[in-house]
Automatic annotation (TrEMBL):
Record's keyword terms, sorted: Antiviral defense, ATP-binding, Helicase, Hydrolase, Metal-binding, Nucleotide-binding
Residue ranges of every copy of the HD Cas3-type domain listed in the record: 102-328
Organism: Vreelandella boliviensis LC1
Signal peptide (residue range): none
Gene3D superfamilies for the chain: 1.10.3210.30
Single GO biological process annotation from the record: defense response to virus
Keyword Cytoplasm: no
Protein name, as recorded: Type I-F CRISPR-associated helicase Cas3
Coiled coil: none
Family: In the central section; belongs to the CRISPR-associated helicase Cas3 family. In the N-terminal section; belongs to the CRISPR-associated nuclease Cas3-HD family.
Length: 1114
């Protein structure tokens, strides 16, 4: 390819880019280069330019495609120097001819700036207390009894006193105050007999500033209840919350919401309320800044009287303050800091490495105020400084395969909604069936919604790490995008390393087809300019931050985005908030999350609406209550966004769209009722089409005879039953090996919990297979060491990609197993936990399912005949009549962990699928039971209704019970609706505390966990089990031997019957040695990274075998 490179760099950036470009191309002028180059060479050139880019860097690359045609490929650095086609302006002027500032839609930008700057002047006044100063000098150790932000808040409360906002602002503006006005009336928690709840006393503006001061490190959390002699710690323990408490919750905040003191000793508490060194407000520069800001705030008092009710203003002000505080505190070089009073005695912080004083307190406060104002002022322009993806042919290309043509119609509809979605917001639902290409369709829809001139930015968030890696890799390969254009973030570096290693191992691409691929998906990347933007520049040194914000397309686990609402301490919400502000959001397979995670996901969708994102939900099995609840959360957020950023007077009327492989539809929905009606109509049409589709999965309930009463009796009996029916299914659903004419089938046995699964696996190994048949058994669950689990998944991925049925017989390991045995029937069986249901693109011939929920049955059915469209006549999925929990613990909840049943409220009357499911719900297994609920639900009598009812109660706001005449006469208030996922956007001021995050955290750990590692000896001949503990230093890991105390080793060869063998897993040390050699690392380092597994800390003994993984041993 022939390229033309044009540099519009200035100063030292011009010298630097010339040095780089001269190595790759010949000059055609002072700022122009031309050369033929390969795609690999061009990628390397771009990486070098990006690596050395400064704020004055600006280089455009044009692809010369013929005599009369060139195409802009990318711009590195400041894209403002070029127009959208890569042309350079003839002349420039500093005059605002286009009056672009008039188009700023930030109606409350001034409020955000002033609140941020004033709060910055107040935020660390509490550091002047004697206790904090002693701590920085090393004279005080242990936890704070009262944190500095609470002391700052009390000082500000004392200054405000009983004044209204106008009065205290006037005193501040006129400088009519002394230090005693702040100190004399301060309420001293822990010392005074009675102290007030701060926010019940402060007027609106003062309360808003007070909240910013209090929350600039951590959100207020409800203190845990006293539990005997157990020490109470902030953010830990149970803090019960009732709906009736929510109304006055914010006004009741007291000191323990910020920190729980470990003692009530007055001598230890007194230094927190003594200010021997005075306060920074005595300095002339502090008073000067306070006066200016107070005067500007006086002008805003009339326009806004409900500061705390504005989610948008308050949280962006908090973001600006926290980012400024974090950034300025990290500065050690005086060159980049402001000047304070000479020899000011009070300290704000110390140098982390040496412990020596770093910043004086007066300078720190002034510096944070300056930076906070700069950040708040620059927020409106952040979007224009971030990279975007434009003119990408891969997204626009029409589908050639008939099965994927629906994507073209979806793209066209999204394109037609582009301007409307920008103005009104967008809430989309993609319900296309499994195997229809939803992943690419989602990207095409979001690309079509974006302005083609500016380019697209969107995030695809998923629940599973492995699925996230697969999705990212699939999009990169399909669309030919680099790491800087499509970033993949999964959180677990070891998972990502293994995935990339196996991907590279599998790659075998030649260079002959490379040129065609370049031409096929040529696109433009506008790089943006991190170094030249006040917000982005302050984030540049944070590890991992740049990739999370900068990439035009981000594929990540949802864990990277939920901190936008879930972070109660530190500044972990800053980066995901900026990502949501600057890109659209796809939530893929959202219904696969545990029901306890849905409140957090509801908060995320609400925040996406609040920050201006367009949202697309994607899953074939979206239940109506989940969709309607998330719509209402989005609508609530979008309503707030439009109040602050939208067209004045424009009513909230969300642009909604529905897509599947048969149809697409759009509608403006101003209310939940309008959305519900349209969604139900679309779902009904989808059900009608599903009913007429070829049946690929037929189900049958497997009646269970009396199997015993104790687990030791039940589990071997279940194994025998599974073996018997697996052989029967094999007879009906097998393929014939073209080389040997042997009959081969691939089956899945799904079990709900790992420990019973291992017992059943051991029983199957003992029982073996009958003559003429051979069973190849793979035991697959999450309690394998990482290297073993990845090895199993890699083999299954290679084997179970069965779009071409004959291909599996060409796999070397399958070929070897078939050729090395005499039996005519070969059953390749995966005995797996719920990890088999989602995230794997596997195609089985048949399945036997231990039921947990209708959702899991439908998801697992999606793995049967996944890549084959032909109809199935005989049942290929058997459902056990009930599960092992019901057999082993009758009378207790059975469809529970995993499942939707609970101990009390949501209890099923019985646990037999014969009564819990109707024939049409299991005889043909597809998405229909999930997509539409019955009009009348019987949650205690139906597995399907139980799921719908639980989701409805959680996601949809329930009407309040009307008061009786007597209650009205007594002046009683109606009871608020019970707490649910909707409480976040329904209850006012809850967003100012962390109580709902505290009550319903994302991915809550129900029991403590430990990490175990299998470390080899020096010779690599054997291994021993170690527990991994955190060391004293940050990032340090200690490996404690626990072989004798925790481990029970099992020799499977002594238990193994005839004609059965392990499949999918190899010896642990062999797998580890192969990986270490491939990655060129030591065996010990490989074990410490990839030989780990997470397990319950409560269990006393663990059994282990490389084939079986870890299980609880008795």
């Amino acid at each position: 390819m022939n390229v033309l490179l044009i540099s519009q760099c200035n100063k030292n950036a011009l010298k630097q880019t010339r040095r780089v470009l001269d190595q790759f191309a010949e000059r055609r002028g002072d700022r122009t280069w031309q050369t033929p180059i390969t795609q690999a060479g061009l990628d390397t050139l771009r990486k070098l330019l990006r690596k050395t880019a400064r704020k004055n860097t600006s280089v455009a690359c044009h692809w010369i495609r013929g005599h009369d045609h060139s195409e802009l490929l990318w711009v590195v650095g400041d894209a403002v120097q070029f127009n959208l086609n890569g042309a350079v302006p003839t002349n420039t002027t500093a005059r605002d001819i286009l009056r672009r500032q008039d188009e700023n839609d930030w109606h409350n930008g001034e409020d955000i700036l002033l609140l941020t700057a004033m709060a910055a002047l107040l935020h660390d006044l509490g550091k002047a207390c004697d206790a904090f100063q002693q701590r920085l000098k090393g004279k005080l150790e242990g936890r704070n009894l009262y944190r500095h932000e609470w002391v700052s808040l009390r000082l500000f409360q004392a200054f405000v006193g009983s004044d209204d906002d106008a009065t205290w602002l006037a005193r501040l503006a006129e400088g009519n105050y002394q230090e005693q006005d702040w100190v004399k009336g301060v309420e001293r928690d822990g010392l005074d007999n009675a102290t007030s709840a701060v926010f019940s006393e402060l007027p609106p503006l003062a309360a808003a500033l007070g909240w910013l001061v209090l929350s600039h490190h951590r959100l207020p959390l409800k203190p845990p209840e006293k539990d005997g002699d157990t020490e109470r710690r902030w953010g830990r323990g149970k803090a019960p919350l009732q709906a009736e408490q929510l109304g006055g919750l914010f006004a009741s905040i007291h000191a323990e919401w910020n920190e729980i003191p470990e003692t009530q000793d007055p001598k230890r508490i007194a230094p927190y309320w003594q200010f021997s060194g005075g306060l920074p407000l005595n300095t002339s520069r502090w008073r000067e800044r306070a006066t200016k800001l107070a005067r500007r705030l006086q002008a805003r008092l009339e326009t806004n009287r409900h500061w705390l009710e504005s989610h948008y203003v308050m949280h962006l002000a908090r973001l600006s303050l926290m980012l400024a505080d974090h950034h300025y505190s990290s500065l050690e070089d005086l060159q980049h800091r402001v000047r304070g009073e000479p020899n000011y005695p009070l300290i704000a912080n110390t140098v982390r490495k040496t412990g020596k004083p770093n910043q004086p307190l007066d300078e720190h406060i002034l510096g944070v105020e300056k930076h906070a104002a700069a950040i708040a002022r620059a927020l409106p322009s952040i979007d224009s400084h971030l990279p975007r993806l434009a003119r990408h042919k891969g997204f626009r290309k029409r589908s050639s395969h008939p099965r994927f043509r629906w994507q073209d119609k979806a793209f066209d509809l999204a394109q037609s909604l582009r301007e409307r979605s920008q103005r009104q917001g967008f809430f989309g639902i993609n319900m296309a069936s499994t195997g229809c290409g939803k992943t690419l369709a989602n990207g095409r829809i979001m690309y079509a919604l974006a302005d083609p001139q500016q380019g697209a930015r969107f995030s695809i968030a998923l629940g599973l790490r492995t699925l996230t890696l697969q999705t990212g890799q699939a999009l990169r390969e399909r669309l030919h995008l680099g790491e800087d254009e499509l970033a993949v973030r999964v959180g677990g570096s070891a998972n990502k390393t293994l995935f990339e290693h196996y991907e590279q191992e599998a790659e075998a691409s030649g260079s002959a087809s490379q040129q065609a691929l370049i031409e096929e998906d040529a696109h433009v990347v506008f790089d943006g300019n991190f170094d030249n933007h006040p917000v982005l520049r302050r984030l540049n040194n944070e590890p991992g931050t740049r990739a999370l914000i900068a990439a035009p397309i981000l594929v990540c686990t949802v864990d990277h985005l939920v901190p936008a609402t879930e972070s109660t301490r530190g500044g972990r919400q800053i980066v995901p908030m900026l990502r949501l502000m600057s890109s659209d959001l796809v939530l893929d397979e959202i219904d696969d999350f545990d029901i306890n995670d849905l409140p957090a996901l509801t908060r995320l969708v609400n925040w996406a609406g609040l920050l201006g994102s367009r949202v697309l939900l994607s899953s074939a099995t979206l239940p109506p209550a989940l969709v309607e609840g998330l719509y209402e959360a989005y609508r609530s957020g979008r309503k707030a966004f439009q109040r602050h950023r939208g067209e004045p007077g424009l009513a909230v009327d969300i642009c909604c769209a529905w897509f599947d492989e048969h149809d697409r539809q759009h509608e403006n929905c101003a209310s939940s009722e309008a959305f519900k009606a349209t969604h139900q109509a679309f779902a009904k049409r989808r059900l009608e089409r599903l009913a007429t589709s070829p049946v690929r999965r037929r189900g049958e309930i497997l009646a269970l005879p009396a199997l015993g009463k104790r687990p030791e009796e039940i589990r071997p009996a279940v194994a025998a039953l599974l073996r018997e029916h697996a052989l029967a299914l094999h007879q009906q659903h097998h393929s014939v090996d073209p080389h040997t004419s042997k009959r081969v089938s691939f089956g899945l046995m799904r079990m709900a919990n790992i420990d019973p699964l291992v017992d059943v696996a051991r029983a199957l190994f003992q029982q073996g297979a009958p003559e003429g048949a051979r069973i190849h058994l793979c035991v697959y669950h999450s309690r394998h060491p990482l290297v073993m689990r990845s090895e199993i998944e890699r083999r299954l991925d290679k084997t179970l990609q069965r779009a071409e049925l004959e291909r599996v017989f060409q796999q070397p390991d399958i070929r070897r197993l078939l050729d090395s045995s005499e039996e005519n029937d070969h059953l390749f069986i995966v005995l797996g936990s719920p990890v088999t249901e989602v995230g794997r693109d596997h195609d089985y011939d048949w399945a036997i399912v231990e039921p947990s929920s209708m959702r899991s049955i439908i998801q697992l059915a999606g793995r049967v005949r996944r890549h084959r469209e032909q109809a199935c006549e005989a049942p290929n999925i058997l459902l056990l009549e009930t599960n092992l929990k019901d057999l082993e613990r009758p009378g207790e909840p059975a469809f529970h962990k995993p499942g939707f049943e609970t101990n009390t409220t949501w209890r099923l009357k019985n646990h037999s699928l014969n009564t819990l499911l109707t024939p049409d719900e299991y005889q043909v297994i597809d998405a229909r039971p999930r997509v539409l609920a019955r009009e009348t639900l019987h949650a205690t009598e139906s597995l399907v209704d139980l799921e719908h009812e639980r989701l409805y109660q959680l996601m949809i706001e329930q009407p309040t019970e009307p008061l009786t005449k007597k209650e009205i006469r007594l002046g009683k208030q109606p009871k608020p609706p019970p707490l649910g996922a909707y409480s976040w956007h329904v209850m006012p001021q809850l967003h100012l505390t962390g109580v709902l995050i505290q009550r319903d955290p994302f991915r809550q750990q129900l029991e403590p966990e430990i990490t175990l590692a299998l470390l080899p000896d020096e010779g690599g001949e054997t291994w021993t089990l170690h527990r991994v503990d955190d060391g004293a230093r940050r990032g340090e890991k200690l490996y404690v031997p626990v072989e004798e105390s925790l481990l029970v080793r099992v020799d499977l060869t002594k238990e193994q019957g005839e004609r059965i063998q392990a499949w999918g897993a190899s010896d642990y040390l062999t797998a580890l040695a192969d990986l270490a050699e491939d990655l060129d690392i030591s065996l010990d380092r490989a074990a410490r990274t990839f030989g780990t597994v997470t397990a319950s800390a409560r269990n006393q003994r663990w059994g282990y075998h490389p084939v079986l993984g870890f299980w609880r041993s008795k």
